[in-house]
Amino acid sequence: MIRVLSVFGTRPEAIKMAPVVHALRDAPRQFESIVCVSAQHRAMLDQVLGVFGLDADHDLDLMTAGQSPAEVTARVLQSLPPLLRQIRPDVLLVQGDTMTTFAAAFAAYLERIPSGHVEAGLRTGDRYQPFPEEMNRVMTTRLASIHFAPTAQARAALLAEGIPAADVHLTGNTVIDALLQTVREDYTFRSPRLASLDPRRRVILITTHRRESFGPPLRSTCAAIRDLAERFSDLQFVLPVHPNPEVKQTVERLLCDLPGMYLIEPVDYLEFVHLMNRSYLVLTDSGGVQEEAPSLGKPVLVLREVTERPEGVEAGTAVLVGTDRNRIVQVASELLSSRAAYEQMANAVNPYGDGQASGRIVKALVERFG
After folding, report:
1. In the annotation, is 97 catalytic?
2. What domains are defined for the chain?
3. Which of 87, 211, 332, 339 is most exposed, with the fewest beta carbons within 10 Å of its own?
4. Rounded CA gap, 302 and 289, in Å?
C-alpha cells in the first residue's frame, strides 16, 4: 500500500482536502491514509472536520493567540519532523497556500520525503498580493515532487517555471468536489439569524479577511456597502465576521447600524455553502469563494487588486473590482439593476472543475507511487 500523510491546518485547506482524504480511504487496498492537522485555525478547522466526518490521526495543536506567519512556520518545522520520521510516508500531501502548506512541504523535503501539492500553479506574479500566500505557493512548487493543477492556466504556469510535464497533473479543483457533495435544495439554516432572512429580499454575501485589505481598503469596501444599501431598498447583507481584530473592529464600527445588515459569527462549511446558494450576489476577497460561487450560478465581485484565479474573470463568472468604493458600487449596481447583465454572469461556465478532481489525484498517486 501507498502510505499517504495529508497535512493541513486551516478551514479552506480542510474543505479542499476532505474529498481527497475520503477518496484515499475509499481505496483501502491501495492506500494507507493518515491525516495530520496543524490547527493553524483551531475552531474553523474543527468545524470542517465535523461536517465531512473526518478525524485527525495526529494533531499538532499549534494555534496561539495573535500568532504571526513566522511563528506558525517555526512551530510546524519544529513539530512535524519527528512525526515524519515516525510515519515515513511514501508521499506527503499539502494543499494551497498557507503557512502550514509551505512549512509542511519544507519539513518533508528536509526528511527526503516527496510531497504532492494540491491546487498547484496559482499565480498573481506579485509576491505581496496576496500576502503571504503568493510566496507560499511559489516556494511549495519548488519543494514538491508532484503537482495537481486545478486549471489549464495553472498547469501552464508550472510548465513555464520549468516543472517537468510528467510531474504536473491537470485535475480540476477539489473545492468543487466538496461543494457538489454538500449542497442540497431542501436545506434549512440552523442559525436563527440566517433562518430569519426575508425570502422576498435579495441577499448580498460579503466575505473579507485578507491582510492586504486591512485599513483603508476595508473601510472603502464598507463605504461601498453603505452606498448600495441606500440605492437598493430590497437588499439584505450578510457578512460572516472574520475573528481577526483588524477585520472585526472595522466592520462592526462601520456597518453595525446599517439596516438589513447581518453581521454574524463565522458559520461552518455546511451553513456557508447554503448561504452562498441563497445569495443573489457575492462580494469576496477569498480565493475559494471565487471558485465555489460560480458552481451555484452566483456572480462574484472580487475585492482584490489582483487574483491568482484569472480563469473566472476570463470566463465571465467574476469581476475584479478591487476595493475602490466607486468601482464596487458601479459594478454591483449594474448587476442589481440589469437582469441581462446578471444572467450573463450567472450562466457563465465555471472553469474550475467538474467535481471529479479527487479521483484524478488518487489515480495520479497510484501511477507515481504504486
Report:
1. yes
2. 2-173+354-369 (3.40.50.2000), 192-346 (3.40.50.2000)
3. 339
4. 9
Q: Give me the pLDDT at residue 338, please.
A: 97
The H or E element that residue 251 is part of is helix 245-255
- List 11, 75, 123, 133, catalytic entry: 133
Q: CB of 362 within 8 A of CB of 314? A: no
> Order of strands, edge to edge, in the sheet holding 261-264?
261-264, 235-240, 202-207, 281-284, 300-302, 318-320
Place of cell 481505496: 27
How high is the mean pLDDT of the chain?
94
What are the angstrom distances between the C-alpha of 273 and each of 76, 184, 364? 30, 10, 29
pTM, two decimals, is: 0.86
Number of CB atoms found within 10 A of residue 249's CB: 11
Catalytic residue selected from 90, 97, 134, 285: 97
CA 257, 261, 265: angle at the middle one, nearest 5?
Answer: 105
Q: How far apart are CA 304 and CA 312, in angstroms?
A: 14
Position 41 scores a pLDDT of: 74
The residue with cell 508532484 is 146
CA–CA separation, 56 vs 50, rounded Å? 11
Does residue 297 have a pLDDT over 90?
yes
Beta partners for residue 2, in sequence order = 31
Distance between CA atoms of residues 121 and 123, nearest Å: 6
Which among 22, 25, 211, 368 is annotated as catalytic?
A: 211
What are the cell numbers at 230? 441606500
Among candidate residues 41, 117, 242, 274, the one labeled active-site is 242
CB 11 within 8 A of CB 37: no
| The three three-digit cell numbers of residue 33, written as one number | 491514509
